[in-house]
Specification:
Length: 399
């Protein structure tokens, strides 16, 4: 299944990615992870750090699933506001969900510090502006709720937004503990660390997910892998029966510009907005702009390169409506499938019927933050420890 089309950017930033052999004979492991995107990579990291014996099997190559299409904004605030969660699932559960994400962001930042600086990870603030006057009231409510629970947030009125950031919008929330990253480099650096921690990697090894027998799974080439625990981090490649009626599939667009002037806007903040679908954009360390948006209710990829480029230019035009005269030149433009959940919460946890099978499906906008949160939840699950957040994200919750 193709997850994206067009021309991507992050793969061009790594000359010699890690490569691994396929599984050629039967294997045995304590933890088997299916999928080598950011979710599988983070799970492998967290579990191998505890001394667990881990095999990660990837049907293709490490890090080239949806993680390669990601625009690399890492934020604790989700696409759904805390005040919206409060209305839908109650204030306390909403607070816990946001707290889970904030903790995950801090864990990501800490983890990155142990990776040796090649990930282009930058702790950077986010600016979430009201697209229209009518959204101000909601942002005021969101701000009050975030402040009530001590989340890192500041309210900027129209004048402050204009003066500090030269953005002409009615108001904005500024948040911190956020970051941006080169997701492919992050996966590569984590892979190096994981190998040091003893993780056994296999590429070109597709696991037959429809044919799991107790503690054994076959590769598509027929080699058995015995496991004590199986973690499914297969991204959008497979829709499991347990969540099939709970998801939303969209198509989304993104682009990366050619390098631009070095001082694009104040503090290189990541910018996004209240409108739906929303525009979002960030910079890179070599002064490119990466932007995304124009989500469509489509389950198929756009294959026509000219149409993809036209969408990229539209997104660039939206950015230039905010920061005129940038003259953005597009280097790479892509579209991708993008899965969400009907309640705005990812699917993480134990299979209710199969005690040693776990899912980490970080559906929704800040999927990479959910990957980190999920790795911590599954670690506790496997160790049989309590976890404050696991009930909120469990797969069999009512939606
Ligand atoms: C355009 C776009 C922009 C995005 N921007 C952001 C962003 O700014 N910030 C953010 O946090 N998130 C963002 N996301 C979401 C984020 O990219 C995803 O949440 C994240 O990459 C999912 O990682 P994953 O490891 O779960 O999936 P993937 O990266 O897709 O990895 C899953 C892997 O499983 C493998 N696999 C599947 N089936 C099998 C099998 N049977 N056997 C073995 N291996 C298998 C696949 O080959 C794949 O490599 C964006 C997504 C898109 C599409």
């Amino acid at each position: 299944m193709k997850l994206y089309s067009g021309s991507l950017y992050w793969d061009k930033t790594v000359d010699t990615p890690y490569r691994f052999e396929k599984v050629k004979e039967g294997k045995r492991t304590q933890v088997l992870i299916a999928g080598g995107g950011i979710s599988g990579t983070l799970c492998a990291n967290v579990l191998s750090a505890l001394g667990m014996d881990v095999i990660l099997a990837e049907k293709n190559k490490i890090g080239i699933g949806s993680s390669l299409a990601s625009t690399g904004l890492l934020q604790y605030r989700s696409d759904k506001m805390l005040c919206e969660f409060a209305d839908d699932i109650g204030e306390e559960r909403g607070r816990l969900f946001y707290r889970m994400c904030l903790e995950a962001m801090d864990q990501l930042t800490l983890l990155n510090q142990s990776l040796g600086g090649k990930t282009e990870y930058r702790s950077i603030d986010s600016l979430y502006y009201a697209s229209e006057k009518k959204d101000v009231e909601k942002l005021v409510r969101e701000y009050a709720l975030l402040r009530k629970y001590d989340f890192p947030v500041e309210f900027l009125n129209e004048e402050q937004l204009k003066r500090i950031y030269q953005i002409h919008k009615p108001c904005a929330l500024r948040t911190w503990h956020d970051a941006d990253v080169n997701p492919y480099r992050l996966i590569q650096s984590l892979t190096r660390k994981n190998i040091e921690q003893g993780v056994r990697y296999y590429e070109n090894t597709e696991l037959d997910l429809d044919n799991i027998k107790g503690n054994m799974i076959l590769t598509k080439e027929g080699h058995p892998i015995q496991f004590e625990n199986l973690i499914l981090t297969t991204g959008y490649s497979k829709i499991y029966p347990i969540i099939k009626d709970k998801i939303i599939i969209r198509r989304t667009y993104a682009f990366c510009s050619k390098p631009m002037k070095d001082d694009l806007w104040k503090d290189d903040v990541m910018v996004w907005e209240t409108k739906n679908p929303y525009l979002y954009f960030r910079t890179t360390m070599d002064h490119r702009i990466i932007g995304g948006g124009l989500d469509e209710d489509q389950k198929e990829l756009e294959q026509d390169g000219e149409k993809i480029m036209a969408k990229a230019k539209r997104i660039a035009g939206q950015i230039e409506a905010i920061f005129p005269n940038f003259g953005i030149q597009i280097d790479a433009a892509w579209n991708a499938l993008f899965y969400g959940s009907k309640d705005g919460i990812p699917f993480i946890g134990k299979d209710p019927d199969q005690g040693n099978r776990y899912y980490l499906l970080g559906y929704e906008g800040n999927g990479m933050c959910y990957s980190m949160a999920g790795a911590m939840i599954l670690k506790d699950d496997i160790l049989g420890k309590p976890n404050l957040y696991k009930d909120i994200v469990r797969l069999d919750r009512g939606i």
